[in-house]
Amino acid sequence: MLIAEELLLLGLDPARGTPLASRQYLVVCLSGALVGELALAGAVELAGGRFVATGPAPDDPLLARVHALLAQHTLRRAPGQLRRLDRALGGAWSHLVDGLVERGVLGRRRDRMLLWSVTRHPVLRPDARDEPVRRVRLAAAGDGYLEPRTAVLLALAGPARLLEVVAPERAARRHARQRIKAASELTPVAPVVKKVIAEMQAATGGAATVAVTATAG
After folding, report:
1. What's 60's DSSP letter?
2. Are 67 and 43 in contact (CB under 8 A)?
3. Which region among 88-102, 106-120, 202-216 has the lowest average model confidence (pLDDT)?
4. Is 132 within 8 Å of 126 (Cβ atoms)?
C-alpha cells in the first residue's frame, strides 16, 4: 500500500466514510505523501526549494505519473508546486480513493442531504486501516528510531490535522507533537506541505476579513 493510501485511511472516519478533518488540507498532504514516497525511492530530490524527478520511474502507475509530471517544465517552479501537481494529476484524492475502492478496501455510496448529496467512502477492510494506525501511534508514543515510511506518514499526519488519530489520549499529544516535529525533520516534503497549508489558511483568513469589512461598509 502506498504511503498516500495509508494517510487517506488515517484521515477517514471508518464508519461514516468522510474526512475526520479538512479535506482541503488532507489533499495537499496526499500529494506530499506521493512525493515523499518517491523521495524514499531515490526518484525525487529537493533542489532549490522544489522537487525534481531523478532516475527511472517507479513501477507503480500513480507514482510513475507523479514522477513524469515532476519532470515537466510547468511543474518545476517551487511556489505552489504541490497544488499544481494535484491539478495535473486530476486530483490525488480521486486516484487514491478509486484504487482503494477497486481493491475492496473502501466502499462508495451517495447519501442525500437535503438539497445536495454526499459521497461517502466507509472502510470495508478494517485491517487495512488498523495497521498504519497502529504503526503511527507506536511511532508517536516512542522515542527511538523512526522507520522511513512511518516517518513520512507521521510527519504528514500533523499538517493533515490528524493529531487526535495519532494520539487518542489527550495526555500523550504533547509528546506526539514532538515526534511529528522529529519526523518532519526527516521528511523534506513535510515543511513544504506545512507552508502550502499556512498559505491556504492565510488566504482564507484574508478573504474572510475582506468579506466582513465589505459587509460593515
Report:
1. S
2. yes
3. 202-216
4. no
DSSP string over the chain: --HHHHHHHHTB-TTT-SBSS-HHHHHHHHHHHHHHHHHHTTSEEEETTEEEE-SSPPSSHHHHHHHHHHTSGGG--STTHHHHHHHHHT-HHHHHHHHHHHTTSB--EEEEETTEEEEE--BS-HHHHHHHHHHHHHHHH--S---HHHHHHHHHHTTTT-HHHH--SGGGHHHHHHHHHHHHHT-THHHHHHHHHHHHHHHHHHHHHHHHHHHH-
Q: Residue 153 and residue 190: Cα distance in Å, rounded?
A: 10
Q: What is the pLDDT of residue 217?
A: 45
Q: Is residue 118 a contact partner of residue 18, using CB atoms and an 8 Å limit?
A: yes
Percentage of the chain lying above the pLDDT 70 cut: 92
Domain ranges, ordered by start, for the chain: 3-210
Residue 50 has φ and ψ, to the nearest 5°, of -130, 160
H or E element, residue 151: helix 148-157
C-beta separation of 189 from 51 below 8 A:
yes
Q: CATH fold of 3-210, please?
A: yeast vps74-n-term truncation variant fold (1.10.3630)
Digit-coded pLDDT (tens) for 12-38: 999 999 999 989 999 999 999 999 999
